[in-house]
């Protein structure tokens, strides 16, 4: 791939550290992009933005932030398909990212979602590849999960806020409500 600006869709501060390091080691110029209407409630949304702002400052990473709280649009997207919501969630965020990459004339796009051990990695890859084909913007695939521990340790040592649940209000309930956690585990092929 031609060396140039890469649009990195960012889900949160801690998940940025390892992918950013790897991509920079490859000699790529990274433009961060925060677009996550899936993060609820509002105070948590703000907290994650603040954590990323700290990471961006420490790592001198330019980031474009979409700071409008997207609760309503997200819920409209997943209502009546809550058990399959992650697919819609990935599509919503990655489609916005590919459009941004196109607008910025980036060489390619990728996402920090590929770093998490708790996301549907293959599903994310599939959706991004499909978007890449549709929008004619190369998708830069890396399995950042290999650096999971390294990234977590760095986030801890930098004292970056690490969230206890994925993002949406459903995942918050599954995190804290034992009955829901069990129910969710019974739904096959889902990341959470
Ligand atoms: S669990 Fe995470 S990936 Fe799935 S819909 Fe909620 S925020 Fe999105």
Q: How many distinct helices? A: 8
Which architecture name does CATH use?
A: 3-Layer(aba) Sandwich
User: What strand order characterises the main sheet?
Assistant: 3-2-1-4
Query: Unreliable stretches, pLDDT < 50, 5 or more residues?
Result: 188-192
Number of strands: 4
C-alpha end-to-end distance = 33 Å
Order of helices and strands: EHEHEHHEHHHH
CATH names the topology as Rossmann fold
Tell me about the largest β-sheet.
4 strands, parallel
Q: Report the bound ligands by name, code or SMILES.
A: iron/sulfur cluster
Strand-residue proportion: 5-15%
According to CATH, what is the class? Alpha Beta
Percent helix, as a range, is 40-55%
Instruction: Evaluate the radius of gyration.
Output: 16 Å
Question: What is the 3D shape?
Answer: globular
CATH H-tier superfamily: HUPs
Protein structure class: alpha/beta
GO biological process, one term: tRNA queuosine(34) biosynthetic process
Function: Catalyzes the conversion of epoxyqueuosine (oQ) to queuosine (Q), which is a hypermodified base found in the wobble positions of tRNA(Asp), tRNA(Asn), tRNA(His) and tRNA(Tyr).
Binding site for [4Fe-4S] cluster: 11-12, 86, 89
Enzyme class: oxidoreductase
Short description:
The model is unreliable at 188-192 (pLDDT under 50).
Give your account of this protein's structure.
The chain is an alpha/beta fold. The chain has one domain (5-162): HUPs (Rossmann fold), CATH 3.40.50. 52% of the residues lie in helices and 10% in strands. The protein contains 8 helices and 4 strands; from the N terminus they run E-H-E-H-E-H-H-E-H-H-H-H. The chain has a 4-stranded parallel β-sheet, sandwiched between helices. Helix 4 packs parallel to helix 5 and helix 7 crosses helix 8. The longest helix is centred in the middle third of the chain and has 19 residues, at 85-103. It is globular and about 45 Å long. Residues 188-192 have low confidence and may be disordered. The protein binds iron/sulfur cluster (SF4). The site of iron/sulfur cluster has 10 residues, from helix 4 and helix 7.
């Amino acid at each position: 791939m031609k060396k140039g600006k890469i649009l990195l869709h960012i889900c949160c501060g801690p998940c940025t550290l390892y992918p950013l390091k790897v991509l920079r080691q490859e000699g790529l110029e990274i433009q961060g992009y925060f677009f996550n209407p899936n993060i609820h409630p509002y105070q948590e949304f703000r907290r994650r933005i603040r954590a990323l702002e700290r990471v961006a400052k420490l790592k001198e990473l330019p980031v474009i932030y979409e700071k409008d709280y997207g609760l309503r649009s997200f819920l409209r997207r997943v209502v009546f398909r809550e058990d399959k919501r992650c697919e819609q969630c990935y599509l919503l965020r990655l489609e916005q990212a590919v459009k941004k990459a196109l607008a910025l004339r980036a060489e390619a796009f990728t996402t920090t979602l590929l770093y998490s051990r708790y996301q549907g990695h293959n599903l994310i890859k599939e959706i991004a590849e499909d978007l890449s084909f549709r929008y004619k913007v190369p998708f830069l695939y890396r399995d950042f999960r290999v650096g999971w521990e390294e990234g977590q340790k760095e986030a801890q040592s930098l004292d970056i806020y690490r969230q206890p649940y994925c993002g949406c209000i459903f995942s918050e309930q599954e995190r804290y409500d034992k009955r829901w956690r069990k129910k969710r585990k019974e739904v096959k092929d889902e990341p959470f």
